[in-house]
């Protein structure tokens, strides 16, 4: 739950997500989350009225402070990229960290009204901004994306797009949902557009917020139906069927892509181990 107008004291102990540019402060000593009292964060006190509570982790509240592009050096603190923070976080903290960045980005990019250009004002009772002139109201942007893992004859389909080329990584297929489109329709369209095949037996898997910059990944599992792999050459550069024992470099299990791949591999291995009893 997102809360604004937070009352804190110097003794308030919390997990602090403090953004400067596109990076977040972390403890230099422990190379982890910034856990301390408000009194110890003198450099951030000018932003007290902008503190947003974005949830809790364990028994500690989690607070967001966005310093915009202000850059401050602190002896006991260092900077880390948002992606690096997510990769080193516990699964239970992933959503909170994602929410923090998405809220910070929303406030940065909605300072002025998109209809008349007037400065926007923050709403006190919900996470939104509103124009005092034309009453146009905006909420944090969430862009739904589908992501799907496809299996066929004991193998899994993995593809490499332009963003993965430099890391030599292969992953599942994914794409944004278009206006007026069902999630299932988006899966079938994206798969056909990117690799030229059709799928069947579509099953919902799970979902995950992905703050680069404001996506909600909706995961599916599917089986190959028909066609031959033919990459579009734009978003997807290579795509192949991989044997579970000969996988390329793939995403970590913290990401939904990694979880989809792991689940599909387990399904394939389980299917291979099933023996059909003979009838005498």
Summarize the structure.
The protein has five helices and 15 strands. It has helices spanning 82-88, 91-109, 162-165, 183-195, 256-273; strands at 13-20, 23-27, 34-37, 52-57, 60-66, 77-81, 120-122, 129-131, 137-138, 143-152, 155-161, 173-176, 198-210, 215-226, 236-242.
Key terms:
280 residues, Nucleoside Triphosphate Pyrophosphohydrolase, 3 domains, 6-stranded mixed β-sheet, 5 helices, 15 strands
Structural class assignment: alpha+beta
Helical segment count? 5
The shape is globular
Instruction: Give the end-to-end Cα distance, rounded to a whole number of Å.
Output: 62 Å
Structure commentary:
The chain is α+β, with helices and mostly antiparallel strands. The protein folds into 3 domains: 13-109, Nucleoside Triphosphate Pyrophosphohydrolase, CATH 3.90.79.20; 110-141; 143-273, Nucleoside Triphosphate Pyrophosphohydrolase (Alpha-Beta Complex), CATH 3.90.79.10. Helix content is 22%, strand content 34%. The chain contains 5 helices and 15 strands. Strand 10 (143-152) and strand 11 (155-161) form a beta hairpin. The radius of gyration is 22 Å and the shape is globular. It starts with 12 loop residues before the first strand and ends in a 7-residue tail after the last helix. Mean pLDDT is 91; it is low at 275-280.
Write the SSE topology.
Layout: E1 13-20, E2 23-27, E3 34-37, E4 52-57, E5 60-66, E6 77-81, H1 82-88, H2 91-109, E7 120-122, E8 129-131, E9 137-138, E10 143-152, E11 155-161, H3 162-165, E12 173-176, H4 183-195, E13 198-210, E14 215-226, E15 236-242, H5 256-273
Parallel strand pairs: 1-5, 10-14
Antiparallel strand pairs: 1-2, 1-3, 2-6, 4-5, 7-8, 8-9, 10-11, 10-12, 11-15, 13-14
